[in-house]
Design brief:
Helices cover 65% and strands 12% of the residues. Helix 3 packs parallel to helix 5 and helix 3 runs antiparallel to helix 6. It is elongated.
């Protein structure tokens, strides 16, 4: 019986191109951070001068945006570090922890906004509609610019997407604030501020839940979305020369970086190396997955085949 333990990566240039992409992402995120922090400082001054709680709360939203981008930048730095010590994958999942934090803060901020908006609907405060409208319109321009910068970064990264969702939801807040300010100026209906905020909360909850769900799948080692392990097992077992597939695992190291490992049994006369190469080619072409770790063995007598499968993890797939 022969043993073929193989580990395969994708394109050898991928690391270099990923590094270039990460540098570009950091530049776009830093540009967005500069826009947001600059406007936030101005808004705090205006809010204090106008004694406007609405504008001060908008500035607080922008502070969470800035924190989300800083967290994303720190996570990107950590993820770029090479593997060392006990961290054999490096710190790539720091980006997923950042996405979790961004999703959670969106939900917490949404809960606080929902509470505040209901209070304002019940007991509407005096709102200076003109100043609120002017500042909100300026905020829309700044957030559109910041969102545009962040859209240029790699949003397939859940880390970048989390920070982007913060900025995008803050844009919704400013649009709602501007509409509410306009309604107050035209009609004097001060409850418009609270009603508009509740609509924004819906967007925030949707974004927050989505981030927590996707990042949670990665932390729990779930298969990448769109790749069903049972279907994959059947496909691999149907390849020429393959008798059985077991210990099949498909997971994501971080967003956009999937991996697969499996124990493969082949017919006695098959070339283990050729079967392994066929599986690697199949995974790259059919599932765009180039990070595979395969143990390939000849399947001999029935008792030897049984020996391989006594402690198989998960389902066994046979031709």
């Amino acid at each position: 019986m022969t043993h073929d333990h193989s580990h395969s990566h994708g394109d050898s240039h991928a690391g270099h191109s990923h590094g270039v992409s990460a540098d570009a992402d950091r530049r776009w995120l830093t540009a967005a951070l500069a826009l947001i922090t600059g406007f936030m400082a101005i808004e705090v001054v205006i809010a204090v001068a106008a004694q406007s709680l609405a504008l001060l709360s908008d500035a607080a939203h922008m502070l969470t945006d800035a924190a989300a981008i800083v967290l994303a930048l720190v996570a990107m730095r950590l993820a770029a570090r090479p593997p060392r010590g006990g961290y054999t994958f490096g710190l790539k999942r720091a980006e997923i922890l950042s996405a979790q934090a961004n999703g959670l803060t969106l939900l917490l901020l949404g809960a606080w906004l929902a509470y505040e908006s209901v209070e304002r609907i019940i007991d509407p405060p005096e709102v200076k509609g003109g100043l609120v409208l002017a500042t909100a319109l300026a905020g829309i321009v700044v957030n559109v610019a910041a969102a545009w910068c962040m859209s240029k970064a790699n949003r397939s990264s859940l880390n970048v997407e989390g920070a982007y969702q913060h900025v995008l939801n803050d844009l919704y807040v400013f649009i709602a604030t501007a509409i509410a300010g306009l309604i107050v100026v035209v009609t004097g209906f001060t409850r418009a501020d609270g009603i508009a905020t509740l609509i924004v909360v819906g967007f925030m909850v949707k974004a927050g839940v989505g981030l927590l769900r996707e990042s949670g799948r990665i932390l729990l080692e779930a298969a990448p979305a769109g790749l069903d392990p049972e279907t994959l097992g059947g496909e691999l077992a149907a390849l020429p020369g393959v008798v059985e597939i077991h210990d099949l695992h498909v997971w994501q190291i971080t967003s956009g970086q999937a991996a697969m490992s499996a124990h493969v049994l082949v017919v006695p006369e098959a070339d283990c190396h050729a079967v392994r190469a066929d599986i690697e080619t199949f995974m790259r072409k059919q599932h765009h997955l180039g990070h595979t770790t395969l143990q390939v063995d000849h399947c001999g007598a029935e008792e030897l085949a049984d020996e391989h499968c006594t402690d198989a993890h998960g389902q066994v797939y046979r031709a």
